[in-house]
Amino acid sequence: MSGISIMILVLIFSGIIAYIGDRIGMKAGKRRISIFGLRPRYSSIIITVFTGILIALLTISILLFVYTNLRQALFNINDVLNRLENLNEKLAERDQELGQMKAEINNKVDELERLTIQRDRLTTELESTEEEYEATKQDLEEAYHEINQLEENREELGKNIALLEEEKDKLEKQVNELNQQISSLTQDYEDVKELASQYRTGMVYYMGKTIVYQKGDIVYSKVLEAGQSQEKIIEDLNKMLDEANEEAVEKDIKIDENTGRAIRIQYEDISNVAKILFNMEPGQKVIVSLVASFNVPEGDWLSVNFLLNRDFIVFKTNEVIAKKTINASSPTEEIEGELEALLDTINGKAIQKGILPDSQGQVGSIDFSEFYRLLNKIRSLKGKVEVTVIAVGNVWREDRLGNNIDFKIETPTEGEIENANGN
What we know:
By secondary structure, the chain is α+β, with helices and mostly antiparallel strands. Among the domains are: 3-75; 214-311; 314-422, no CATH class. The chain has nine helices and eleven strands. The chain has helices at residues 3-31, 40-66, 68-75, 77-206, 230-248, 267-279, 332-353, 368-379, 414-422, and strands at 211-213, 218-225, 263-264, 285-292, 296-297, 302-310, 313-315, 320-327, 384-391, 395-396, 405-410. The protein has a four-stranded mixed β-sheet with strand order 2-4-6-3. It has a three-stranded antiparallel β-sheet with strand order 8-9-11. Helix 1 packs antiparallel against helix 2 and helix 7 crosses helix 8 (368-379).
């Protein structure tokens, strides 16, 4: 029910109650009715008051009947008041919170304004940065292009550097080789300088004196058997030194009056040679030679060193050493030249096969008379003849060829001449 309807209903019922009360009061006044023993006038007043009370009760009843909340509020006024007080407190709290929220909103608004300003500034900076980015991007593209060109140049430079490194290595190698050569030449120069000094000293010393032994001359040579006991080897070496000394004292050199020795040698050299011979294969033949250490003028000491060479058969018995075809009708000088060339061939072949040469590079020679006997025998023949050199026995490394060869002279056929010339 709406509020207007309730008001109309209240007015209607109030008018009815007032009318009824007025009628009752008028009747009571006319009839002189007394209520509770009061005068009629006071009784009329009581009726009027009672009528007003009824109107009020009716109004309140209607309101209470229509509005449940009003009825609850009227009969529970204390609770309502407490609730109202609580609501007021909550409202105060809400107002305080609202104030705080307003302050926060104001702060947020201020911050929003600040952020807006900052956003505008950042937007401006962003636009500027975008412009810089575009410019930087263009610069970067140009830089990439330059980098690609530089990469190509670097590859080219790498190849050039590799070539230069190779050239540098070659040059360093050449420099090292040149330094080694310089060092070697410097050492050779010092050696030559020292040797020249020794030669000058030697020339001054040796001038006017006869050289009995030249440096490198074999004073004495003997074949010893290796692999024997140390006592036997030392015994053989001492015996060899005694034999060599017997030959040396016959020369015009200085001799120790106390020992009668003409040969000077270090004991360590004898011990080292003995160890070498001891450690070699048993039965191995070794040519042990005593070689002059220095030029020995007459009246001076003879210092010697050992020289060891394995011994073996160079030419076997009846082995052909060399052949040569000579025209017997040629002049004597040409025949002599041919024979000398044959002897040179024999000498070279013998050295090549292992015969030990002397200090002059020779392995032996034939007598003057033997040479001219051959020459005269060839001259007695006509046309071309073949001269064959043959070993008369086994020729060892220490042997001299002069006493171990024989010459055979024959008239060859045309095929033999071609073979001989080919050899």
